[in-house]
Amino acid sequence: MSEANWTVGRVAKRCGVKVSTLHFYETRGLIQSWRNAGNQRRYKADVLRRISVIKAAQKMGISLEEIKQAFSTLPDNRTPTAADWQTLSTWWRDDLDARIDYLQRLRDSLTGCIGCGCLSMKNCPIYNEDDKLASEGSGPVILDR
Amino acid sequence: MSEANWTVGRVAKRCGVKVSTLHFYETRGLIQSWRNAGNQRRYKADVLRRISVIKAAQKMGISLEEIKQAFSTLPDNRTPTAADWQTLSTWWRDDLDARIDYLQRLRDSLTGCIGCGCLSMKNCPIYNEDDKLASEGSGPVILDR
DNA sequence: CTAATACCTCAACCTAACTTGAGGTAAAGC
DNA sequence: GCTTTACCTCAAGTTAGGTTGAGGTATTAG
Questions:
Q1: Which of A41-45, A122-126, B110-114 has the lowest mean pLDDT?
Q2: Which domains, and CATH codes, for chain A?
Q3: Which residues in chain A are contacts of B144 at CB distance < 8 A?
């Protein structure tokens, strides 16, 4: 099999994902393929690394949309080099550091917080993480208790 | 307002969630209410803490189903005490420790891994984390962003 | 007493990330 | 050449965690 002749089935098996997942990633613009004479997908070998990177990023909690954004920084007209991938990993590492840090702060305030009854109060560290990572919805309302 | 006369609207406002969320949590068995003569929901004050705990647990990446399981260990016939909640927080703290540990290992192998090309190989640490957190439910753990 | 809110139920809709299935074609094995 | 396996497209289904809206009732403020 030449460098540019990977079939969906082979890629799927090699990467441990389903064929439907590869179709799906393609519709989302995360991977590309060319078609042979019979309209079947064929991939270049670098798709393997892309998929691996997608899977790794997902384990870090990164969404497909964000992965797509990150991929858009890769070179268009040539196969990404190790250095190109390295750049991505550095970028995500910071993200991962932030997530870890957030969870650690959450952990450190957890024991005191859940038990003590402060959860609905304005000074609760869990409720008031001054952190974009934590912000969701409209947030708690300060009331007495 | 007596201890057992919280309306949905008040609870929602106090906790920073929507009324529909409270309805939803009720259908999932996460909170309970009683009805007044006009069929409107009324809550006991302890629902406030339940909701706070749900929110805190979600930030740790715990699913509603798991939260429900944890709640099932709370006493049925009396309002949970601080000690009861403390037990839960200890339980989840271990969970959180495991998640942090997992992310740290992921981070430590990331730089070497994404760049080096080993990602699709059998011995790649990212691909072979022997970790249940990495494979629980549908996809990776969801974290706040 | 009346109008403005607040609630109620139930069904449908939403996003993410896929999976499943139907109906049909291509490629590969013997 | 024939049969099995691999692919193709497109639509619809799935799970989590909610949100939105319609049509109707209860409560509350003035």
A1: A122-126
A2: 6-105 (1.10.1660.10), 112-145 (no CATH)
A3: 102, 133-136
